[in-house]
Amino acid sequence: MNLTLHVWRQKGPRERGRFVTYRATDVSADMSFLEMLDVVNEGLLLKGEEPIAFDHDCREGICGACGMVINGRPHGPKARTTTCQLHLRSFRDGQELWLEPWRSRAFPVVKDLIVDRGAFDRVIQAGGYISAAIGSAPDANAVPIRKENADLAMDAAACIGCGACVAACPNGSAMLFTAAKISHLGLLAQGQPERYERAAAMVETMDAEGFGSCTNHNECEAACPKGISVAFIARLNADFVRARLTEGRRLEQVGEGGV
Amino acid sequence: MTTATAPAALRLKVPYVASTIGRKVVMAVTGLVLFGFVLVHMIGNLTLYAGPEAMDGYSRFLHTFLHGGGLWIARVVLLTCAVLHVWSAASLTLDSWAARPVGYRLWKAKDSTYASRTMRWGGVILFLFIIFHILNLTLGHFDPGYVPGDVYANVVHAFRQWPVSVFYIVAMFALGLHLDHGVWSLFHTLGFSHPRYKRWLREAARGFAILLVVGNCSFPIAVLAGWVR
Amino acid sequence: MNLDARIPQGPLEQKWARHRAELKLVNPANKRKYTVLMVGSGLAGAGGAASMAELGYEVKCFCYQDSPRRAHSIAAQGGINAAKNYPNDGDSVYRLFYDTVKGGDFRSREANVYRLAEVSVNIIDQCVALGVPFAREYGGLLANRSFGGAQVSRTFYARGQTGQQLLLGAYQALERQVARGKVEMFPRHEMQELIVVDGRARGIVVRDLVTGELEAHLGDAVCLATGGYGNVFFLSTNAKGCNTTAIWRAYKHGAGFANPAFTQIHPTCIPVTGEHQSKLTLMSESLRNDGRIWVPKKQGDTRPPAEIPEDERDYYLERMYPSFGNLAPRDISSRAAKRVCDEGRGVGPGGQGVYLDFAEAIGRLGEDAIREKYGNLFEMYERITAENPYKVPMRIYPASHYTMGGLWVDYNLMSTIPGLFVLGEANFSDHGANRLGASALMQGLADGYFVIPYTIGDYLARTPRHSVSGDHPAVRAAVDAVRARIARLMGIKGKRTPTSFYRELGSLLWERCGMSRNRAGLEEALARIPVLREAFWRDLTVAGEAGELNQSLELAGRVADFLELGELMVRDALAREESCGCHFREEYQTEDGEARRDDARFAHVAVWEYTGEGRAPLRHEEPLTYESVHLATRSYK
Fold first, then answer.
1. Which end of chain A is more exposed for a tag (fewer CB within 10 A), N or C?
2. Please, which residues 207-236 of chain A have a Cβ atom closer than 8 Å to chain B?
């Protein structure tokens, strides 16, 4: 099959980008989408042109490195599928495709279709962890966890941090990403001690990174390759409200040498 | 071995209502109050169909409730809510626009709805409408025959002017869309979401939205059609 | 080359405890004066960086990905072993140890493996404490399953995403240390050179993959946790970016490279569909718990599977290995698949595939039960192949997956270069000639969480501290060497892409040094690789510039190293005149085609020493002595 690609080319973060049109000819429907780009890139290299830069690594939908907006949909037209797992059989012969990077102030373009998602790491740094020093853990079965909670936590923890939720959100919001981590940890017994501080701190960082706010469009869930539910956003909202409005019961300041 | 870091919450710099979620909660709570108001307003207005005495009596009741204080309490609460609602919406909208300085060449929506995507412009229409509506039916502008306190007659006058009715009907459709998304969405923002009840919540929101559109639009239509004179 | 493994004295069960008691400690107030460089951010790298930072060391951590969360540990699906014996089915530290040594075909070090089994229980505790959402039973306790040829249920799992969840646990611990200021993270930085000063590893040169700038980072010790080199075969289940550059630089600075020929071929991957194939996708081995593997009895039988009657199917694993059946270890089932395909009974396009059939399990347990257990794997399969595995059997074929070989390390995980530690898959230590399923995650975390934090302290405490300045001749030489190498790659301006050389190398190695090897094939490969390498340095083309993000340059650098490593692999395979684990030499097999080990001549670790450009490397031996286990013939019949 043949495809026409309009690809966003941008040399660096501060350069102006533009669409450049390429043709992928005689590609097989069994190819993955990225393999098709590999073929295009090999052709460019042989012509002495710079190949299209795109992030990818595991190519099996788990590392979260890949991702681009393909014809107006993050990760392309197929639900619950990362760009690397997309195959050309999802497209028609002769189809025209527009390939664009994630668009978000918090994800500046590094080159072509590559963006910098460091903001996600910083949101995690703000509190997306459980402070359990290595070596200090009690027996794994010391605290039973309701299976339903463990399963729900796993649903949230399935997030691969690809950024499609931000790319899909009309507001450029990172609520689904943040909510998934807060829910994952907040549903587990081990995550309780830091639960509310975590929610408050992660949301503050999320806001500071320049993501937009959530207006419940549900576009994030639709674009999420792991199908993470927006119900976790409601859970985050509840935790955040509780964190900011009702926590902090110790009124007096802890003085020097306190705690 | 481990040096404890200060609990994160102690280091927060941003006041609650300045955070995105804080502003969303303000929007949700004020939205809930305003939703309650439009519902009661519509039910009260049904007295139109019971004749001039019923409607004027209802109006007198509102004006004399708590020795006349009730109405002012309601006005202050509603005005405060409206201001906060608009402030939160406007500031979040500006933030969201800033969050995507470069847009997409091609964009296809999937799970968002027409209602969810028109919240902002629908809100602007409603805002303009409310100003007009107060000027028109509370203060008597755009209506040469306006008589303070003669509510029934004023309503009939106003709606006989077809541009007023048309604007009113358009605004009510905007209200319907606004509520269709807003009413379930506000619960989500306040942290209520359960896979079992979410569908009901969405349907209930739609039900209320339809009820309000039908109820409110019935007034100008009834007047224009001559069923109410 | 000093190959003293420094195995502690005493009975096996007490070695690690005794060793910990004897290791020197660094004063808590002094720890912050030490800087440790950690290359790689997978289970071993992130785990080790987080643990060392927790202890108080200053850590710099580097990864080539855009975030440490994307390290390839994330792709492990099936699970992690631990001798918890929660199911009360007879497991113990000793049994896990024994299974691992036996699974490795008696080519691993007893003491290391015992330690691994010992700390496996702490790993599970630690991971749960860090919030890893392992599968649980309705009573709220952890669930276990049996995995990859084990007779007990000792595998903990998080759906089919165990590696992801364990890595996220380690990543979160790492990010916590970043927030505390104890770890400085350098994503999109690739190690290009090791800096050795006065015989000790003191730093690395990295290339900032965004700007192309070269940076030298100096420290008191260097840890490599850069994973395996399975990508040398071009097609493998490894992530596209996985490479050998870091350990190869270390090798060229004098670190011994152990058992490079021990590469594992995983039996359950989705078969190749065509020329364009860029990588292979693994289907978790856990599928073999319920799936039955078969091929048609007749050669060239092209009927759809549903039309092949039961008595014309050959469930060859069940036939050949009645007691383990479909759960036979990886090396054995991979070879069996290759054998039936070589007989012309393979299925699917190209005849390179066997069926993995769930019809019987679906009939017995119901489709819902199968969906509950493997739903995400079935979805993944369907996405790639457009076939519904609930209705038609999956097609699978072996693919390169893991490398047991790696840099030689002693009991403290230190290579032959003092101050250079090697963790996880990058070292050779624990899996012998074959790794058991669900043991890679265990080893990565054991090295990172529970071994390196102890052993690095001992090294630092015993080493006089003196700082190295940025303009030390060794530092400048290392940076210049990298600059020259990049300039050379950029300057060839030939006509072939890095991928074309890479593909050629990969298919040569897969054919000649893959699942089964023989002298003639290996010798042929040994002759062809230098020719290919020469062609590479003569006819390569790389676009763009060195001073910017340049993916073709990155790939070219990696391929250049694979072209050298491939040769070492072949040499090692040629020198090891026996069949053991994943290393199958056709000349050394029993009459019924099983591996014939030669304990008299080859019960040792082969360690290769670099002797200079264009000179043959030297082969050294570290003898393996077994005090606790009896060297048995591995039988899964």
1. C
2. 207-208, 210-219, 221-223, 229-231, 233-236
